[in-house]
Amino acid sequence: MVGIFSKLAVGGTIAVGIVFSFATSATATEKPRLVLQITVDQLRGDLIDRYRTHVGEGGFRYLMQNGVIFSNAHHRHANTETIVGHTTLSTGTDPAIHGMVANLWFDRKTGTPFYNVQDIEYPLVGAAGIDAANEIDPTQRAATTDGRSPRNIISSTISDEIAIHFGPASKIFGVSVKDRGAIAMAGHAGQAYWFSKAEGRFVTSTFYRDDYPAWIADWEAQGKVALYANQDWTLLRDRELYAFADHDDQAWETELPGFGRTFPHNWGPDDNKYFTTFLTLSPAGDEITVDFAKTLMDAEQIGTDSVTDYLSISLSSTDYVGHVFGPSSLEAEDNFARLDRSISDLLAHVDNTVGLDKTLIVLSADHGAPEHPDYLATVGIEAGLFDFQRVDTEPGFVRLQLDFGASRDLIQNFSNPYLYLNQELIGQRGLDPTAVELAIAEELQKLPGIAYAVGSSALRSGSVPRTKITEAVLANFHPDRSGDIYVVFEPHWFVADFDGLTVASAHGSPWAYDTHVPLIFSGPGITPGTIVRRVETVDVAPTLAAYLGTKPPSGTTGVPLPEVMPQ
User: Fold this and answer.
1) 3-class SS at 212?
2) Which CATH number fits domain 388-448+450-489: 3.30.70.360, 3.30.70.3280, 3.30.1490.480, 3.30.1360.150?
3) Average pLDDT of each block of 10 consecutive residues along the chain (567 residues)?
4) Got the DSSP string for 120-149?
5) pTM beyond 0.85, yes or no
6) Domain span(s) for CATH 3.40.720.10 in the chain
């Protein structure tokens, strides 16, 4: 095996450090045994460098020393949310083409919000006692009944293309705490597993398989999740080594009853209904995900033959920690240190089982994150939080009430960043839909905190001025799923509501702090270096396709990055 490994005791736990002794090389005819795609949810493009004093020997350091770093990589779509970014990375195209325009959009047919990967035709395996033949079977393990599948992803993914090119012997898997993080990357041809907070275990849906493999039951029997019960999330390193050592109780951090906003954070007993939620709001979520992925690799014999396999691991803790505490917090800083250790652990396992000299790795992120306005105020930047609930009380909207009727009735739904109008009511009142759309957009744009409000009629007709922001909004526009008005908040403004909580950070804008993400490729024949020109995340999938010799995903609009091609 090509790596030399040493076990390092860190903070009373065992971390795996890596010292690599090989020089990568590849010929044009060699194919990697494994494509490993690591996506770190909410890892803003500057954070690796900002917290690099916490980087150990194996994780980010290995990738930076052995990979080509694109330091100016950006998403080019406007709505920088989880499903949007993941699917862009996997398909090589914009949400206007792959269709995943938001984490939630409003389904006009049913009059209800629609979650991106929901699919009632494919319930979770074992849900409500349904067996493989869709018959009631009381021996099946119960699970939540929400169905999930990748069928709402319109384009093929790079994992689909790998399956098509290399055939049924190619093994394709996606793993994440989040269902959307696993499904978007595993594509239509692979298998996806995600962590159910309700069940405290990894689950999948009947789209992928009819039952659970035995190795999952074996993993569950080890009690890896329960090991965290009544334990604390403590600092990995000595407190004085942290930039935010003296800022552990910032006023804008979210106070979660039972979890607190200062160290140590206790996960509580495993029968607490919030136990698994607390795990995902901490580095424990990534640690559990990596442990599950390592078990999957061994059980499914990933990368053990000459046929190229694909494994996606989406690590979600950075996103949850960022939402609750903000990217500039002691929690975010320690989470990064532990993220680095988890990636080191993963790469060590890949080296031991597959060989890093036979593995093509790409690491990126689905989006970045803004700072809290109060944190920005410490350096003189003005910002704010936007409350959409107050919109209909503004004078301009009261005036629209007289012109068109109750503005609250005209606005049927706001699913950030889209506003959906009540088209049925507009028709009943004999109003001109385009005129209503334009009038509401104009009033929205007058409000403090809103930079642009772009109507879908203008997007369809191409009558918007071509700027970086409108190009990003157009890249996000799908006529069947996008709302009637796209709302772009001013830089550093955001809606702070997150599932009923007021949070410290919430991404989803076209501004650089949300679009800028890391992008690193490492693998056989790749010459290490740093590239500073702007590249885009739509380039990732076609680059993997060009490296592997597959055709690019069906909707690809990006281009291969020549620096990644084997030399």
Assistant:
1) coil
2) 3.30.1360.150
3) 30 36 44 98 98 96 98 98 98 98 94 94 77 39 70 98 98 98 98 96 97 97 98 98 97 95 98 97 98 98 98 98 98 98 98 98 98 97 92 85 73 93 90 94 95 96 93 97 98 89 95 98 98 98 98 98 94
4) TTSPBTTGGGB-TTS-B-TTSPP-----B-
5) yes
6) 3-369+515-564
